[in-house]
Write a structure and sequence with these properties.
With 179 residues, the chain is mainly alpha-helical. Helix content is 73%, strand content 0%.
């Protein structure tokens, strides 16, 4: 700091830089919210409508019957080795329970956010096509079959979210910073 330079002399410059940054952040947030609000809402409500029965009911399959009342399914015995690792970790800190409403809504939320990221990666600006993309992504048969395994569907949805996020950062300008 130079001699005779006061902090009060530096404050207008700091304030101007803050206003420029704040205005840019407001504009960025407005662009993101305006572009993806409709996609998010349509995709989320399509997911709730498509999986409403599965989310509000406990549908037992071979894994949940074996592990009733609590458990994470057959892991290593059926070739899903990481399910055993994850199941033991979650069981220690949270508990392995089949909670269809909780797990299903978290899965729908992760897939909805992933659909918004896919619309951004594909650079779809049409509202109709972006909503159709989200609706197709949330109602894809792979996710529909995963919804029957309600005790692990949120793990799979989180994995899809991380994959789509990785593709987004791989295609974006800031990929070197985060990768």
């Amino acid at each position: 700091m130079k001699r005779g330079c006061k902090i009060s002399d530096m404050l207008p410059g700091i304030y101007i830089r803050y206003e420029i940054w704040n205005g840019g952040m407001k504009q960025w947030r407005a662009d993101i919210v305006a572009r993806f609000r409709l996609v998010f809402c349509v995709t989320f409500f399509t997911g709730v409508w498509a999986y409403g029965f599965v989310i509000t009911n406990v549908l037992h399959n071979y894994d949940s019957i074996v592990m009733t009342p609590g458990g994470y399914g057959t892991g290593i015995a059926s070739g899903r080795w990481f399910l055993t690792v994850l199941g033991k970790f979650i069981g220690k800190y949270w508990g392995n329970y089949t909670l269809p409403l909780f797990n299903g809504m978290i899965a729908v939320l992760f897939i909805t956010i992933s659909a918004c990221i896919i619309v951004a990666v594909l650079d779809i600006h049409s509202r109709v096509f972006s909503c159709i993309t989200g609706m197709l992504f949330i109602s894809f048969p792979t996710l529909a079959s995963s919804m029957l395994f309600m005790y692990t569907v949120h793990y799979y949805a989180f994995a899809v979210f991380l994959t789509v996020l990785g593709v987004y950062f791989g295609c974006s300008k800031i990929r070197g910073v985060l990768l």
